[in-house]
Specification:
It contains 11 helices and 10 strands. It is α/β, with parallel strands linked by helices. The protein binds 3-methylmercaptopropionate-CoA (MMPA-CoA). The site of 3-methylmercaptopropionate-CoA (MMPA-CoA) has 23 residues, from helix 2, helix 3 and strand 6.
Length: about 270
């Protein structure tokens, strides 16, 4: 297993652990002592990893050490630095850049969630394409109750998942959603309750990462790059772009072979609970 360490953390621990299992990249937030709250170095480490993903990596698993996925902005750093408006605008733009590389980097990212997925932690999770949650996960946007606002992309990414009016209500009231409520709104796609015999979330997330890695890389690229962009277009432009993307993707090297497998009855069928 390949392992690198990104930047230094509390007591010289790396902020981010990165490793590989075959063609799966694994990125792990490693600041459990502060519930994986994100300071400037953490954002820089995330940006650095997603800026230079090794070419053999087909999917990325985003995980976190400890009981909580991510407590959002490092409030201590923010408080201690007493940033000016302009300084914090630049910090927010750094978050936007880093998380945009997650969402639009062309490689599917599967987030494995546990405990708190709050504030900037929810903004980070919202940039991932598949979210698998442990049943004790909870979601919140407490910025409104802390006298600040979202700055890591929630107004764009999270609002598009749960709808803008829902986000307004969550922020005004500081409401905390449990894993099931989060799933109903699309914040989690899978909820794993091991007490009920479900596969543990990390195991399911890895299984899904491996399955997605088996898709055509160009198909995956289009799925994670085109759909959210087309959603921002007019219907006319969207349909035109969809056609162009399809025309390009279907010229991929192995497409004929994959289609032939179905035609020759060698491919799997689409079945419920397969
Ligand atoms: C932190 C942070 C943090 C914990 N920044 N240090 N985010 C929030 O408002 C979430 C704030 N955090 C919490 O509500 C709770 O810490 C948790 C529910 C996540 C976890 O509770 P718990 O009981 O497991 O831990 P704890 O005792 O509260 O915290 C353990 C340590 O982590 C403690 O430090 P210590 O030195 O006393 O050990 C906490 O101070 C530290 N810690 N969360 C800094 N967020 C780009 S804009 C994004 C806007 C936002 O994200 S606003 C932040 C929203």
């Amino acid at each position: 297993m390949f392992m690198t360490q990104c930047q230094e953390n509390f007591m010289s621990d790396p902020i981010l652990l990165t490793s590989e299992q075959g063609n799966i990249g694994i990125v792990t937030l490693n600041m459990a002592h502060k519930r994986n709250a994100l300071n400037e170095d953490a954002i820089a480490a995330i940006d650095a990893y997603f800026s230079a993903v090794p070419s053999h990596i087909r999917t990325i698993l985003l995980t976190a050490k400890g009981d909580h996925f991510c407590a959002g902005l490092d409030l201590k750093e923010h408080h201690d630095k007493a940033r000016s408006g302009v300084e914090f605008m630049r910090v927010c733009q750094g978050w936007h850049r880093a998380f945009d590389k997650i969402q639009h980097g062309g490689i599917p990212v599967i987030a494995c969630l546990q405990g708190a997925v709050v504030g900037g932690g929810l903004e980070l999770a919202s940039a991932a394409h598949v979210r698998v949650a442990d049943s004790r996960t909870f979601f919140a946007l407490p910025e409104g109750t802390r006298g600040i606002f979202t700055g890591g992309g929630a107004t764009v990414r999270t609002a598009r998942i749960i709808s803008a009016p829902r986000m307004v209500e969550m922020m005004l009231t500081g409401r905390v959603l449990d894993a099931q409520e989060g799933r109903e709104l699309g914040l989690a796609h899978y909820v794993c309750d091991t007490a009920k015999g479900d596969t543990p979330a990390p195991e399911l997330a890895l299984t899904l990462a491996k399955k997605i890695a088996g898709n055509e890389p160009l198909s995956n690229y289009a799925i994670v790059s085109a759909i959210s962009r087309i959603a921002d277009m007019s219907a006319t432009d969207g349909l035109f772009t969809e056609g162009l993307v399809m025309a390009m993707i279907q010229q991929g090297d192995d497409v004929q072979e994959r289609l032939g497998e179905f035609v020759n009855k060698k491919a799997h069928k689409v079945q419920l609970n397969a």
